[in-house]
Amino acid sequence: MKFLSKYLWLLLAGIFYACGGGTSEVAENTEEASNEEAPTEAPKYSGATAMGVMHEVSDVAAWKAVYDEVSDPDSRLGYVQSTENPNLLFVFEWTTSHDEAKASMGSEEIKAAMERAGVTSEPTVTLYDMKYFNQNGPGEGQNYRVAANHEVADFAAWKEKFDADAENRTNAGMTLLGMATSPENANMVYMVFAVSDLEKVGEMMGSDEMKAKMEEAGVVGEPTITTWVAPAPADNASS
pTM for this structure? Predict the structure, then answer.
């Protein structure tokens, strides 16, 4: 395992996620003495599906202005910047469905918006079936993100081993922000962790002990790991 080149593919979590989307508010009738509640609408984003979009931009501030203008605020999970190239961004959003996400990303409207925002590379889109989402977010000082993806022989068996190792991740200063699988392969796992010390986490994840645990848990092949930094809260208010 190694901390990589900017074009290797990551994950989630991260995306990272298995959470419920928002809760619809119940309107109250203040003009009439009625105990009836207004019907509630199902949340647009259930937390079941999400997507990650990775691309390079010429200027992050200019890109974000356009992104904030054209994207749905309720869909935004946030974005991160590569530790190797601050203009390489990974954007996370809730989606209503995988079909909707594909249609949206292939639309002329989105292509025009990306051009206007100064996107300089072909976007890489990954779709997620969310398994876990940490609604508490990162801990204090955890400004970095470590994204990891790998295939496993059996997700349920791997997840049991992963959960049993939670204390070691906590001791290494890692907070799981999200976990997902691929809609095309239920054994392809994506995770995103918040960390404060990349060197410490890198040593732990690259250790012989961790490699042995992964092998025992049924990890197939070499994991892909990427490192990112989260913008200041004022710049990344949607995360």
Answer: 0.80
